[in-house]
Amino acid sequence: MKVKELVVPGSPLGTAEEFVAGDNAYEHVDGSVRATSIGFKDLDEGNHEARVQRLTREVKPLERGSVVKCVASLIKEKMVMVEMLEASKDGEPRQILNSFATIPVFNASMRFVERLNDLFRVGDIIEAKVAEVTPYGIDLSTKEPEFGVIRGYCVKCRGPLQLFDQQLKCVACGNPETRKISTHYLLT
Ligand SMILES: [Zn+2]
């Protein structure tokens, strides 16, 4: 089997004497035909055409187990409503078709949750796992230690919260706060 040669914009594909520039290729002033995009080199000897087959990477949709970064938009009694900002699974980006999702209270923590306001506040940046994708929406979970708030803001002055010895405190006014924090909580 012939190994496909990967090229990048500017890579020479052949000479202008041998080939005309086909798809995703151009004739350079130095007399070579070069690639205009990333992809596989495709030389059509019959038609004397040098082309590049573009790499099309299909982005799969969200599914159970995907990890999302989201911002808390509304804290209700039984759920947190969030807007998803980015998603991935096993390091590959995932497509967010509808950015709205919820964290149901029973998915929020391993511990008993009295008030969701003790775990999350509007504006917090949260990392969560997709627990379920249904026709009605996406349920997220922050039960595991690596999930939860990765960036929180002071309810009094909106200053960023920093972690001091497992205790969140506002950098600006010193107000202590509680959250369900992720082990990935951003330190600065
Ligand atoms: Zn503050």
From TrEMBL:
Source superkingdom: Archaea
Domain S1 motif as annotated: residue spans: 65-143
Any GO BP: RNA processing
One Gene Ontology cellular component annotation held by this UniProt entry: exosome (RNase complex)
Ranges that cross the membrane: none
Predominant location category: cytoplasm
SUPFAM superfamilies from the UniProt entry: Nucleic acid-binding proteins (SSF50249), Ribosomal L27 protein-like (SSF110324)
Subunit-level organization: Component of the archaeal exosome complex. Forms a trimer of Rrp4 and/or Csl4 subunits. The trimer associates with an hexameric ring-like arrangement composed of 3 Rrp41-Rrp42 heterodimers. Interacts with DnaG.
Family per record: Belongs to the CSL4 family.
Protein name (Swiss-Prot/TrEMBL): Exosome complex component Csl4
Gene coding for it: csl4
